């Protein structure tokens, strides 16, 4: 799929850990693949929350003096991928509210709240004013409006949200973490020294040398208070359905979601694709980096050799200039190069994790052809993408999806591939084993009411 | 080996190609792995050379307006890795001289000239003054001192140089390219539209869609003039001996050096390591990115499954902060993470391309052990590094090399590995097939006189 | 006084003026002396408000593309001097609220609201949450809470504020401007083409070639709507008492406040100081830039020649390094130099506008002595500063004021001056002619209730 | 004249002074008015010279860590105004040469060498190559080519130069300073602690608290060696003729050149203008900052009151945007504002130091008229500028000078002034008292042969 889809965020928090801001910095660094546009950390010290945030990678936003100014043993952080419309500084997270009555509270959020418009309207009627368009601001207002202790208020606020989310809240020396009732967005906790860490993905724990972690269950609520973690739930949960795209593309291969390792899942998709595939081929290659695991799986199941057919340029930056139209057309060249020796004269199985618009896949097929591949058989380690996502993945309309507009044969023709196969949603679910999957973007089975977004589907 | 060794540079040039500076920009971008510290382009237009250069990646140094100011159909460019001592702005290449008598001349150079001190002394005696410590300045002065046409002068200058080098010279609407008589540093040419390109590595041609290229032979001299390329030699050449490290570590897998593809070479080293290796193991993993090809080769030859045992964080930047000593010790964690599912409870063959100081390898072994690997068998896809390099690789003393100070068994103990095996120099040469190799850093067979550097060895 | 005191802000707005953001940029540039820490512009287009703001000078925050993105014929802007505590990005103005119910509203504010803590508490109880500590956020919330049309709500909000302020509000295609009931902070309007401009100081109009302007009266309220300006008042006003420091130090000499030109006021203070001053002196000099007008006035009234006794270095930046303690002690040297020829061997009248801590004045006296001045008679063009200001000038405690701790004779001794004279508050009021002055920092006659700030005085 | 003319540089050096680089930083900061485009410092430590330089103000180029890296008790520095053509990094000074035979040598230079083309040709024939177009590179080559001790070689090199220059050379633990034989560019020395300082202007000494300094005489040569300063001359000198523009416009008023204080000189020009001026006027104003001294002199001599008629915006930066043509036309407004109260209804004497193109003066006259001035009598504190300068001031053609194309009456009409008077060259020389002046740009009496530049005059 290669740089066509974007996750919207990652969150990381520390509770009762010395120099919490620095540890959060490390955590965010490990979650950087979930968002490269902006980064922020809010640390609490004696009830006062200091926040630092800015555009750019975590390593660019924070330098030593900045980190040193963020005191305290509790901190929450956020990395963000921002779409054009929401790039305003007012939307960079965490978002903090200061109040002499309620104290400082900070919120960081990954996902999408589908009843956000409805909540915003209701809150405005009750007097809220919004300085940005971030869901976190809505959550802050909900927390403020409710009655009771901070924990009670955060829980009641959580119960008002519909959609996909993993949320961290910090205030009064406590930390709260909760996950949507469908378990769409991942969230895990881990013990660290005398405290805890909480993260969108477990890969951020491993950086600290922690390999034991627990998934926050769908609808689960974690209260970090008085030095301990108390687990509860804020609402009855449905059978968990993790966003399939987390496994397919977003998460790092070393992460574990709902007890299923991402690399293992991807290998399994490769194995399934290989099963019963009767194409005559010489080698299997994957589009780096996200499709390599599936390609290894395909290789193992088929017995065909795995090859490094494509090399990725590690220095591609956002400032890349493409002065001529010709160059723009062939922009993918700057990022991927075929290894001629690995594909020349061969019948190649090319594994890609998914197809969004199809333009990049088509260019890769042409690159391989140019490098001498005799036949190119494209195998997609997921089903046909047909529908938009309202749970935090930036597919906002059906029209942008080649799988919505074309049949598989038409797509094959467009890609100029010799053959093309996708997985079925059933096969995908099989690959996930014990973990339930949301496959709405493949088959329309959205697991929540869609509120105002349902219009998008009916168009 | 993972970020322990550094190549010193890469060069790229365009002759008779519209918007030569932009095309050179693309070329340098593909050579970025050869140097990330500084970047420069010198374009010639009507005999006038304009140069732009600065610290940082090519994409950061050049923006659209900068590129637009570099007019002309000829251009040469350079990417640089600079050691601490030579980071001065005066050393960023290309280096240009302006002269009303001889016109503008620009030089870009990759490698190391071993008789540089002797030449510098001689040139100073004849009146040269040096503003920096770059070899390119020496070459410029040699060109200026000689008699005859520019081509004659460049050729005579080339003949004075000893060592490892790939040099581009530009002036009078012409371009010249030459390579050392041992072929230590790679250099290739390719036809592009009505002109030519010349590059340290062929991967830069593929970005333009060119898969046909020719190696500049050892001692070869290319004159691009009057719209054509005229090949000659400036001195009798020895049997070519390409720097083994180019194949082992520096070059991109999709590059071809002396008709041998780098990926293929690396796979071959893996195969050789597997042959006769009687260790009982479950999986083969490679240290990303440079050791993956060798690991695939080992897997193919041994029949053991290839696995993604280590994941690399793609967002590691130079500004990374490591506030605690503990973190610094475990700095490798920020860059590499083990995939627990791939290694837990298993006996693992871990392929690395080479070992310099050993500190990183030791940390990786520990990471794998922490992630549950039962046994770790380290296989190095090259011989034991024992001696410094005077040909452009930044090993300047024997002392920094663990292979100089310890026996293989001592190294194994230091790495905390269950077993350890290296290749022999003979095996390495075998892997290179028809291409000759310089293996001086392994066995001391330096292919040139070492001049003042010979002292380093005798200490 | 020279860089010891700081004004807190300046505001500028455009109504019904093509390319309002660019014109606001010019206006802010002319108000830059009122705040150099941050700058922001909020432009309205079809009910939508876009805001751009950042740290730094107006010329650094806004470049052509940024300005071009701020469409619309209405805009308000702000320049800010931020104290250490409030330097957070969340406090940079204008502050904008987005609401589907009430539309977008932006607020920019200069001054200090003394009942801000009380209002904040009340608003929080009604459900407001604050993301920063800026008074503008309080004003936004007040506007939102009230009932009626936007104009009615802004007026009711204005009536709740106590203190010193000049406020601009923008929304629904309208602009509102109002000033505190004591007229402490200046605010003026001017016709420009088919629209209007409103500014903290009239110097910003002159940049546009407008020399006719009207003061917004104390308690006055301006409604810019339907292409016209409708003047009213939001509360009964007291006799106007402009902050004396505006005339003495902050405002530009070409500005007119309450029909009194600043330069003329300052000259008058010089004249008054000269009257009855029987010291024997040779020349009069002023500390640049703010004391030059008073020095000219003294020279005219006394008949003593005006001289350029001190030269200011125009390139002093905030990044200035002072490596040694000795240098730090003499930091004033980097900024001011005596003109030896103008003062050597002479008895010098040195005019300064005011004395805060006294450290800078003492250094200047030493500089002049060093340059050979025989006698130095310091004349301060204002009374002794004794008390803190709660109306927007950054004197927050009595203790920091040398005039609070010492008698005039003690100050003279500290300054090492041969004689020292201040003005009396009565003389200052006389200099202001028809304009009333707030002289609270000199004589304690605060013109508002001080709410929670009254504690500061009683300590 | 206001930002129309530019000096080309300033130099500052320290000999035998602890932390010489930091002290040089202070010195350059005081010379910043002589060049704001680039700044550099070269410090020597044990024979090794380290240079740091970059674009921008001294305070921006050097931060604490940079300064700390420049060790040693000797240092030379440079501030530069660079014309469009020469903005290349290769031209930023000081320029350093490294040589194993001759050691490191650094050169910094202010002025213009008129036989530079001839010298460059000669040096190229002898084998020199030039990486930039700076005169300093020529001087470095001359030094290298000569025979003898470093002092002898520097002296011989100095003797080859024709034109206007103040040059600092550093190497072998010594410092050398010399000035052209006509004394066109200023240069002074001063004792500081156990060492010496040398500077283009004496204002840089005063920052250190030093008021005693000595002019380096025309043709003078200073050798700082073995802890002492030895004065000599490198060639017979002519009667000194300091560039008149140094006194009129470039130098700071607190500087002393050839024993004449700049402020005093300027006051004298004002006095001379007043003598016999029979115009009926109410006030005298000066264009800030350079014409204020002359205005004070005119005021004293005429008895007319001196007024602050124009205020300068201190925050004008180079990034100022002028989006509309109308704004561009009125660009001067952003920088200068009239003080209406000071000029309204009055007959005004407006003193300006000189007129180059006349466009700015015309705009200022219009501003004053707009602000209500009844009559505007322009008095220029220098003669009519008619000819180009080849000695370091950026007037390169006659055509750009309004004084070359028009008579005084025509200029008056163009300026829309009620009357206009210039000084005569004789009057100017009279104002300089004992100091001789170069008045070539007024009357064509160039004090050197012009070599290739003589063509410019004959066109």
TrEMBL record, chains A, B, C, D:
Protein name: Amidophosphoribosyltransferase
Pathway: Purine metabolism; IMP biosynthesis via de novo pathway; N(1)-(5-phospho-D-ribosyl)glycinamide from 5-phospho-alpha-D-ribose 1-diphosphate: step 1/2
InterPro entries: GATase_2_dom, Ntn_hydrolases_N, PRTase-like, PRTase_dom, PurF
Reaction(s) catalysed (UniProt annotation): 5-phospho-beta-D-ribosylamine + L-glutamate + diphosphate = 5-phospho-alpha-D-ribose 1-diphosphate + L-glutamine + H2O
Domain annotation Glutamine amidotransferase type-2: ranges: 9-227
This protein's encoding gene: purF
Binding-site residues, [4Fe-4S] cluster: 243, 389, 438, 441
Segments crossing the lipid bilayer: none
Cofactor note: Binds 1 [4Fe-4S] cluster per subunit. Binds 1 Mg(2+) ion per subunit.
Entry keyword set: 4Fe-4S, Glutamine amidotransferase, Glycosyltransferase, Iron, Iron-sulfur, Magnesium, Metal-binding, Purine biosynthesis, Transferase
């Amino acid at each position: 799929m290669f740089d066509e889809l974007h996750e919207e965020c990652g969150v990381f928090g520390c509770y009762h850990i010395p120099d919490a801001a620095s540890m959060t910095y490390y955590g965010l660094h490990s979650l950087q693949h979930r968002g490269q546009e902006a980064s922020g950390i809010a640390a609490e010290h004696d009830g006062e929350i200091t926040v630092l945030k800015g555009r750019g990678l975590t390593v660019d936003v924070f330098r030593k003096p900045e980190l040193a100014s963020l005191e305290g043993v509790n901190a929450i952080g956020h990395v963000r991928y921002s779409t054009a419309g929401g790039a305003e500084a007012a939307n960079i997270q965490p978002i903090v509210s200061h109040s002499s009555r309620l104290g400082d509270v900070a919120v960081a959020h990954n996902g999408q709240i589908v009843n956000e418009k409805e909540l915003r309207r209701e809150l405005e009627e009750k007097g809220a004013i919004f300085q940005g368009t971030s869901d976190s601001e809505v959550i802050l207002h909900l927390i403020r409006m409710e009655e009771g202790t901070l924990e009670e208020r955060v829980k009641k606020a959580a119960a008002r949200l519909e959609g996909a989310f993993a949320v961290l809240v910090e205030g009064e020396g406590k930390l709260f973490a909760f996950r949507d009732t469908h378990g769409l967005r991942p969230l895990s906790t881990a013990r660290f020294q005398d405290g805890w860490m909480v993260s969108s993905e477990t890969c951020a724990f491993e950086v600290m040398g922690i390999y034991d972690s627990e998934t926050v269950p769908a609808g689960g609520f974690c209260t970090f208070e008085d030095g301990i973690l108390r687990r509860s739930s804020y609402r009855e949960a449905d059978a968990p359905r993790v966003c399939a795209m987390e496994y397919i593309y977003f998460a790092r291969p070393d992460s574990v979601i709902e007890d299923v390792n991402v690399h293992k899942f991807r290998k399994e998709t490769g194995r399934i694709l290989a099963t019963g595939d009767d194409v005559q081929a010489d080698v299997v290659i994957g589009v780096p980096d996200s499709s390599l695991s599936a390609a290894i799986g395909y290789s193992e199941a088929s017995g065909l050799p795995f090859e490094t057919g494509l090399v990725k340029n590690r220095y591609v930056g956002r400032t890349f200039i493409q002065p001529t139209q010709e160059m723009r057309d062939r922009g993918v060249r700057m990022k991927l190069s075929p290894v001629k020796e690995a594909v020349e004269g061969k019948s190649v199985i090319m594994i890609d994790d998914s197809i969004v618009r199809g333009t990049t896949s088509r260019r890769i097929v042409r690159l391989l052809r140019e490098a001498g591949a005799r036949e190119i058989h494209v195998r997609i380690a997921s089903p046909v993408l047909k529908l938009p996502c309202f749970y935090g993945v930036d597919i906002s309309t059906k029209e942008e999806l080649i799988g919505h507009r074309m049949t598989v044969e038409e797509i094959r023709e467009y890609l100029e591939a010799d053959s093309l196969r996708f997985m079925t949603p059933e096969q995908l679910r099989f690959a996930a084993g014990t973990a339930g999957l949301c496959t709405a973007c493949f088959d329309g089975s959205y697991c929540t009411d869609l509120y105002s977004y349902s219009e998008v589907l009916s168009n």
